[in-house]
Automatic annotation (TrEMBL), chain A:
UniProt source species: Nocardioides luteus
Domain Reductase C-terminal per the UniProt entry, residue ranges: 324-391
InterPro entries the UniProt entry points to: FAD-oxidoreductase/Apoptosis, FAD/NAD-bd_sf, FAD/NAD-binding_dom, FAD/NAD-linked_Rdtase_dimer_sf, Reductase_C
FAD/NAD(P)-binding domain segment(s): 5-303
Organismal lineage: Bacteria, Bacillati, Actinomycetota, Actinomycetes, Propionibacteriales
UniProt keyword annotations, A-Z: FAD, Flavoprotein, Oxidoreductase
Domain of life of the source: Bacteria
Gene3D superfamilies in the cross-refs: 3.30.390.30, FAD/NAD(P)-binding domain
Cofactor: FAD
Flavoprotein keyword on record: yes
The name this protein goes by in its record: Pyridine nucleotide-disulfide oxidoreductase
TrEMBL record, chain B:
InterPro entries (UniProt xref): Fe-S_cluster_ET (IPR051269)
Annotated keywords: 3Fe-4S, Electron transport, Iron, Iron-sulfur, Metal-binding, Transport
Pfam families (alphabetical): Fer4_15
Cofactor: [3Fe-4S] cluster
PANTHER family from the UniProt entry: FERREDOXIN
Protein name: Ferredoxin
Amino acid sequence: MSVAKILIVGASVGGVRTAQALRADGFAGRIVLVDAECELPYDKPPLSKGLLLGMTDSEKIRLLTEETASELDLELRLGVEVVGLDAEAKQVTLAGGVAETYDGLVIATGVAASWGPWGGLQGQGVHVVRTLAGAAELRTELAAGGPVVVIGSGFIGAEVAASARALDLETHLIDLVSTPMSRSFDPEVGEFFARLHADRGVITHFGVGVDEVSGARGDLTLRLTDGSALKAAVVVVGIGARPATDWLDGSGLRLEDGVVCDEHLRAVGVDDVYAVGDVCRWTDAGTGELVRAEHWTNAVDQALCVARNIMRPEEPTSYRAVEYVWTDQYDWKIQIVGRHETAVVRQILGDPNSGRFVVLYGGEGGVLTGAAVANWPKALVTTRKAMAAGRLLAEVVDKLDGGAAPEAARVGVRA
Amino acid sequence: MAKLTADFGACQGYANCVVAADDVYDIDDDGIVVLLKEHIEESDRARVEEAARSCPVNALQVVDG
Ligand SMILES: Cc1cc2nc3c(=O)[nH]c(=O)nc-3n(C[C@H](O)[C@H](O)[C@H](O)COP(=O)(O)OP(=O)(O)OC[C@H]3O[C@@H](n4cnc5c(N)ncnc54)[C@H](O)[C@@H]3O)c2cc1C
């Protein structure tokens, strides 16, 4: 292969896995990995769970060490922010003004957590959870005691609330929506998880917003839209994240909620630029829609696809993967496969109250379109395989249930 | 030949390995990985290593021997 130097901006899971896949694929040129953070590359999922609980530590979650990087001959440039791209000249600008050239560029800059209007309280006991340093700081503050108020009940907010309860702290979870993780679960399943959090002692405030956060470290006050006020020692903001593309402004890349890519994960409008992971908004090969995902497995799958396409640009592979995300809360292992929004039929197997169930979603014609799985490993494997193979919901039911279950119900019609 | 190893204590049952290589990896009813083979041919190593790298908790290794 003629490409001599691949530059990867962002050395988190998307960037690191791309580098590893390139080497596994026999790429013999230079691979330079640049990241703004000074830390050796690390994995993010434990930041809101095991790391806060002290069940893992920073050394156990490294994606690369000095040794593994040098074994693969990866040039790691840590603590170096990239501030600009000149796609015509095939070079990026590093903070300080130095240019770094490339033959192929991989954009893996992920997303940055949103602070909402509360960025000014950073360092005053108000946190987002996105970096190892930030999570370590949060862990120290949690050790000093609660109450903990979590704003936003998406995955990260719900996980932090579960972790805070595991640490036996008074914990509040606030969200404008009526159920947690509402983008991923249908309302009934969301309702179930709202009850799970309440049962575990989280004081939930759904359908309520936050008007104001004031005060200082250790003595924060939140004013809620229902007129009530809460005291907090620690506030965690989990209201979403924004693609980290500021450094690409004016580069000629199409930026619309991420780096817009074709189905081969090549940035549209420029040559030899790819995007992977949370920052990548790719064209779905089936529907032509632009999609972006903030899930670990998506970053890893895209890394493989990009490495392949760099090695074999003449016969590029389309990115096709079944969406998959897990979340671990309390002693619950919850996974989501595919999507529920487009479903016309829906069926529950198992019993939510027994702690083990799967909700299956099907489209017109009965094809499985998604599943929400809780504490049921076999159902997870079965639904992931069935989604990849385009199987029918009924086939999954047969496999898991031996055909004993009643037929799937139309969505919106409750038995 | 290459040898497969797993850290059964670390495994969280996320099932990425099974999706990537179900001739080599499975998970049991408790959600712990099952190695369906002890050894694989060198020629299969790249594919299985790719599956091992898809493990979110780094519980899978492919080693010489
Ligand atoms: C707390 C938390 C818990 C999570 N839990 C789960 C989970 O349970 N399951 C799941 O499936 N997913 C989970 N995720 C999501 C998963 O971690 C992400 O999908 C994954 O990290 C995306 O990887 P990435 O490489 O695309 O981007 P990121 O991990 O966001 O990394 C981007 C990197 O780019 C660097 N960077 C950004 N801008 C620049 C620049 N201008 N110059 C140089 N470097 C730059 C950053 O420093 C960073 O290291 C979680 C995420 C978080 C934050």
